[in-house]
Amino acid sequence: MALALGISVTNPFYAQSLLPAVETTFQLAPGSVLLGPMASQLGMVLVFLFLLPLGDGTERRQMWIVLARALACGGVLLAPNFAVLIFSWFGPGLVAMIPSLLPAFLTAFTPASSRGRMLGIVLSGFSGILLSRSVSGLLA
Question: What's the CA gap between 83 and 128, in Å, rounded?
Answer without folding.
Answer: 28
